[in-house]
Amino acid sequence: MAVVRELTGTEEFRAALPVINELRTHLLDNDGYLATLEEMRAGGYRLFAVMEEGQFVALAGVAIRTNFYYGRFLYVYDLVTSASERSRGYGKLLLDHLEELARADGCETIALSSGIQRAEAHRFYKEKMGFERVSYVFKKSL
Predict the structure, then answer these.
(1) Cα–Cα nearest to 79, from 103, 68, 100, 63
(2) β-strands 109-112, 71-81: how paired?
(3) Can you tell me the distance from the alpha carbon of 1 to that of 22, in angstroms, rounded to the nearest whole number?
(4) Are 56 and 43 in contact (CB under 8 A)?
(5) How far is Cα 134 from Cα 117, in angstroms, rounded to an integer?
(6) Alpha-carbon distance 130 to 45, whole Å?
(7) Could you tell me the domains of the chain?
(8) How far is Cα 84 from Cα 40, in angstroms, rounded to an integer?
(9) Phi-psi sector, 113: left (phi>0), alpha (psi -120 to 50), beta
(10) SS3 109
(11) What is the pLDDT of residues 38-85, one digit of tens each?
(12) Contact 73/64 with Cβ under 8 angstroms?
């Protein structure tokens, strides 16, 4: 039976790298990944996993934030289900868990950004999870 739990230790973070790497393909180096993760955690980032038979099958990296347009909200920075495990309900299980977490922490909203090429993910967010598209995200590399 699949369970959701928060990851807190270095060995768990190291073991989660192959799954997070499916979304963040540039994270090839364990040391760089762990150093960046520690900096993110200092800023409130938390990593949750869906475990099935002792294996990581889906991950979500989140943080509670506050701003003028969402109020208090949970931001999902990273959300990935392992390619071999998709369409088995793990993403829904994870987002449902995060929604409960956000409500319990007084959040008014859950927000995330998703790459424009991820049409299947967009359909999942909108049709299965009740998210709405409210903006475009722009970036400029420096």
Answers:
(1) 63
(2) parallel
(3) 23
(4) no
(5) 17
(6) 24
(7) 3-128 (3.40.630.30)
(8) 28
(9) beta
(10) strand
(11) 999 999 999 999 999 999 999 999 999 999 999 999 999 999 999 999
(12) yes
* pLDDT score of 125: 94
Do the Cβ atoms of 80 and 38 come closer than 8 Å?
Answer: no
- DSSP-assigned states of every residue in 15-37: HHHHHHHHHSTT---HHHHHHHH
Dihedral sign for Cα atoms in the order 118, 44, 99, 110: negative
Q: Is the pLDDT of residue 8 over 80?
A: yes
**Planar angle of CA 58, 21, 45, nearest 5 degrees:** 70
* pTM for this predicted structure: 0.93
Element (H, E) at 5: strand 3-7
